[in-house]
Design goal:
Layout: H1 5-27, H2 33-48, H3 51-81, H4 86-102, H5 106-123, H6 128-169
């Protein structure tokens, strides 16, 4: 635990910046957004300490874990429901990484969508309609997963901000 109010304030400000970076990482999946938020909140709890800080940190960590899990489950369920195996997904991820390098940051999304559609078209014997329908449903599920994760990550950061204000004012 830090001893001075100035050190606590500096630590809280730096952790706040890390949490904002984590929220950005949820939207642009180049960074592990939820993981950054979880580690940031736990670090804040260790550095600043106290019942209020630890309560807020634990609530924020639970929210971030729920968002991370929901995103993974929603996307995985949609991919499984559409019968999309791991092969096309891996191809989509590789094309997304190439897209991220060629056209940052939108290339990541464009590359994933194009890679998934292309791999599904080949897998479905060039039935573009079926490949497009399956890819679109998978992308919708991914979008919904990102929105749920973003909402819960934002709520976790809001809990942090509220607890930080209370901690420093009272």
């Amino acid at each position: 635990m830090l001893e001075s109010a100035a050190a606590e304030g500096l630590a809280t400000a730096l952790i706040g910046l890390a949490l904002v970076l984590g929220v950005v990482g949820v939207i642009l999946p180049v960074l592990p957004g939820s993981l950054i938020i979880i580690l940031g909140l736990l670090t804040w709890g260790v550095l600043v300490g106290g019942p209020l800080v630890w309560t807020a940190a634990v609530i924020g960590v639970v929210l971030a874990i729920c968002g991370w899990s929901a995103s993974t489950v929603l996307t995985g369920r949609a991919l499984h429901r559409e019968g999309i195996p791991r092969g096309p997904i891996l191809i989509a991820v590789v094309v997304a990484l190439v897209g991220m390098i060629l056209l940052p940051p939108l290339g990541l999304f464009i590359g994933f969508a194009a890679g998934l559609f292309g791999a599904e078209a080949v897998r479905r014997d060039y039935d573009f309609r079926a490949a497009g329908a399956a890819s679109l449903k998978a992308l919708r599920a991914m979008g919904l997963g990102i929105l749920v994760e973003f909402a819960l990550a934002g709520t976790a950061v809001s809990v942090f901000v509220l607890a930080a204000v209370i901690h420093f004012l009272f």
